[in-house]
Amino acid sequence: MNTMSPIEQSERIVSLDVIRGFSLLGIFIINMISFHSPFLYLDPYTWWKTPEDTALYPWIDVLVQASFYPLFAMMFGYGLGIQQQRAREKGSAFYLFGIRRLLVLLGIGCIHAFLIWSGDILINYAIFGLVLLCFMRLSGKGLMWLGGILFLLPQTFFSILLVLMTFADPTGVTQYTNIAALQNSVAAYASGSFSSIMEQRFEDWYMVNSPDNLIFLLLSILPMMMIGAGASKLQLLEKVRTQKKAWMVIGAGTLLAGIFIKSLPLFIESNFAYTYIQDFLGGPFLSVSYAIILSLLLLNEKLVNWSKPLASVGKMSLSNYLMQSIIGTLVFYSYGFGLYGEVTLTTGTMLAVGIYIIQVIVSEIWLSKFRYGPVEKLWRVLSYGKSDRVKKGEI
């Protein structure tokens, strides 16, 4: 029986890497807010005071917030589907490999979450990826239908329930700033010791990943992984050109639906109910539209050439994601420059874009010399159980 081997450069799907690279920009823009501010504990529509910040945040809220981690989850599922297909073609044992690969990712995620930054998404991807493996024997259409149902039915139910609560008990869904938690966060990250930062980091992680929130995390990430895995089995990214008209209609529809749903707090009321609908229902619609729009744009050969730097970031997505957290925490935490709570939303966003541009340049240079990013290399060695050559040519 053959063993699994890494995806060769010639086998890569350009649009997949470009979408990953684009996702990292959106993820960094929204994560940057948590790097420099106690985002978990404040009401963003009352917290930002400068004209620039109050003008910028609605754009981030509608176009970025909760729209990129579902997009990356879909690409995660797509990549898993590719690995399964390659294993089938080579007669390899896919499921044992998949479990090992996801357990390695879980380990990387734990290091990231508890030693670097609490907003880690890798633990969730690894755990829900293991759940996804249980469904990977389904057909492409089966996975997409199941993912769509698991996304739409629960989110629609919870959305209706929360809207009804706004009429029954308006104060129960009011957003507010948690002053005590906010002060603890600022005290720890801005001037606390490393041990106090460790303690606060775990509290922040547990607030998002507590058992009470697990079902919501599962229903926001797993369905998107299923849709991505199903799309991979159907080779939808590879068939965009032959299904161009259909994808244009679907892309336009999901874009309009996503923007409409995500704009609800701006036009109705900024409370927990409409924010939930905005993020958990509108975010995935917008992420699907982003994937389709990018895939359609990449039918143009000139855009394919221009997008190569973005694809390089996507090829090194794990390394770049972790590096964003390392840089962000070093700039703002007390063991670095200690600027936590000292910068505006606008400044933080500009910093995120600037660092991302540097990552694009560094990724291009790195991949001109090596086949994989440094963390990707480590992940591959631990997953495949052998050391494939990293450098183009020789190690």
- N-to-C SSE string, H for helix and E for strand: HHHHHHHHHHHHHHHHHH
Distance between the termini: 27 Å
The biggest sheet, with number of strands, parallel, antiparallel or mixed sense and barrel status, is:
none
Backbone structural class: mainly alpha
Strand content: under 5%
Counting DSSP H or I runs of 4 or more residues, the number of helices is: 18
Low-confidence stretches: 1-11, 387-395
Rg, alpha carbons: 21 Å
Shape: globular
Number of strands: 0
**Portion of residues in helices?**
over 70%
Mean pLDDT: 91
Can you put this structure into words, describing what you see?
With 395 residues, this protein is mainly α. Helix content is 74%, strand content 0%. It is built from 18 helices and no strands.
Q: What structural keywords apply?
A:
single chain, disordered C terminus, mainly alpha, 395 residues
What is the fold's blueprint, element by element?
Elements: H1 14-36, H2 44-47, H3 51-63, H4 69-90, H5 94-115, H6 122-133, H7 140-168, H8 179-191, H9 194-209, H10 211-233, H11 244-262, H12 264-267, H13 272-297, H14 301-306, H15 308-315, H16 317-332, H17 345-369, H18 374-384
